[in-house]
Amino acid sequence: MIAMKDIYKTYPNGVTALNGVSVQIDQGEFVYIVGPSGAGKSTFIKLIFREEKPSSGSIIINDTNLAEIKEKMVPYLRREIGVVFQDFRLLPKLTVYENIAFALEVINESPRNIRKRVMEVLEIVGLKNKARFRPDELSGGEQQRVSIARAIVNQPKIVIADEPTGNLDPETSLEIMKTFESINERGTTIIMATHSKEIVNRFKRRVIAIEDGIIARDQQRGEYGYEV
Ligand code: ADP
């Protein structure tokens, strides 16, 4: 569960990105974050995995109050949250397998568990046959599926995706959406910032629209709601 209360965020340059946001997202929900450029979507998302801290207000993630956690506990929080970016952010010299295993090696998982988990997530994203490939030998959609596999290998309760289909063609974007849907069906919360009208209107889910740093709209099975 994610609960934000009265969140304000002003960056050091004086720009106020969030101007009083309160919202609750329950475990297992699938939520789109939509809105114009510069509205505060990325800031909203970064607050959840503590890439940024709020200027004021409280954020509770799965019983943890982010205002109260010590810096040394931040890596533990991040394990509860998988993150997927528009530009994939894979390590180019490592194979698909190694890119995913890396997330488990850094937390000292046993080699046996690492192998088991990596093969499980490759199965989920449909890339078992590409385990030995390097990122530049894969299509954009396949690279994004590797990054999704990496995001879920720690079995996080929440997956956050910032414009995950932003670099992909419409057909590949649909494949990626199906991957997110199957992860959501396993009970993982998905929070996805997107500019894709096509996706939001086709895979109907909760829509939270952020405009000028506030929540302008919050609808179950909502529409994208902007002209593109
Ligand atoms: P969106 O994701 O909706 O495009 P952002 O959250 O990235 O919006 O940005 C909201 C506002 O905050 C914008 O005016 C942007 O320029 C500003 N902003 C974002 N990140 C920073 C930062 N690190 N430092 C200063 N201003 C920022």
List descriptors.
alpha/beta, Rossmann fold, 32% helix, binds adenosine-5'-diphosphate
Task: Summarize the structure in words.
There is one protein chain. The chain is α/β, with parallel strands linked by helices and 228 residues long. It has a single domain, classed as P-loop containing nucleotide triphosphate hydrolases (Rossmann fold). 32% of the residues lie in helices and 26% in strands. The protein has 7 helices and 10 strands. The strands form 2 sheets. It has a 6-stranded mixed beta sheet with strand order 6-7-8-3-9-10, sandwiched between helices. Strands 2-1-4-5 form a 4-stranded antiparallel beta sheet, covered by helices on one side. Strand 4 (56-61) and strand 5 form a beta hairpin. The protein is globular and about 45 Å long. It binds adenosine-5'-diphosphate.
Q: Which helices and strands, and how do they pair?
A:
Blueprint: E1 2-10, E2 16-25, E3 30-34, H1 41-48, E4 56-61, E5 64-65, H2 74-79, E6 81-85, H3 96-105, H4 111-124, H5 140-152, E7 158-162, H6 170-185, E8 189-193, H7 197-202, E9 206-211, E10 214-219
Parallel strand pairs: 3-8, 3-9, 6-7, 7-8
Antiparallel strand pairs: 1-2, 1-4, 4-5, 9-10
The structure holds adenosine-5'-diphosphate (ADP).
Number of helices: 7
The fraction of residues assigned to DSSP E strands is 25-35%
* Series of H and E elements: EEEHEEHEHHHEHEHEE
Report the count of strand segments: 10
Strand order of the largest sheet: 6-7-8-3-9-10
Q: What structural category arises from helix and sheet content?
A: alpha/beta
